Amino acid sequence: MSFFSFLVFYDWLFLAITIAVLLYLRASRHRNYWRNQNVVHEKFSLFFGSQIKHLYKPLHVVDDELYRKHGRLFGSFEDGKPVLYVAEPELLKSILVKDAALTQRKVVEFDDPILSNLMVNVPPQQWKKLRTATSPAFTSGKLRKMQAIIDSCAHFTSERLKKAATASEDVDMKGFYGHFTLDAVASCSFGVKLSPNSPEEGSFIRSAKNVFFAEVTPAVMLSTLVQKAGQAFRKRVFNEKRSLSTRTPPST
């Protein structure tokens, strides 16, 4: 009896090792992709790679570090898949403007209703419909009007900064310029001026701060690192309730 148990143990051990090897080969199948393309790239890592830095560094800081390390065009890996980073203005213009309507372009899939319907992510046919619907909002005349509104918000912000400097006040610069951004968005989108400490400002800022995850949990963190895990845990990147509230202008 013990002899058969011994055989069963080794059968299971062999099966476990085989599965582990197959999973490794599957996960690392793209490890030489950028090397074969002769493209400068971030070193392949089986577990998250540069994505792990997003847990303790802002996204733009991680991207800036990679940009300074590799230059304007380089490869990386996300979820074990090759990803091309482009920081060349003329090439970006071709990708995002000239070639955006091409039917063979790659569509990024998200398990999130908001991200999935962004103009840069939708399929070409839907992209054409969205472009037709949004183009009237970005005519040269309306852009000139928006520039005047943004200039007004910038002037108001600079005056607030001058007063704070004159009074030698300590200023939270992130929150200070965050107010400027929200003020410009609210003024251009809803025609609402966000005066400091006003009820409208409080309501708008609360909604903006909670657009992303209301609570960071291990499942949410894993979902941001591994897209397939997001489908399993059904975790949304955006807080839909708060996102919907920002579509309605604050009551005045």
From TrEMBL:
This is Putative cytochrome. GO terms for molecular function: heme binding; iron ion binding; oxidoreductase activity, acting on paired donors, with incorporation or reduction of molecular oxygen; steroid hydroxylase activity. The chain crosses the membrane at residues 6-25. InterPro entries: Cyt_P450, Cyt_P450_E_grp-II, Cyt_P450_sf, Cytochrome_P450_3A. Belongs to the cytochrome P450 family. Keywords: Heme, Iron, Membrane, Metal-binding, Monooxygenase, Oxidoreductase, Transmembrane, Transmembrane helix. Signal peptide: none annotated. The keyword Transferase does not apply. Its cofactor is heme.
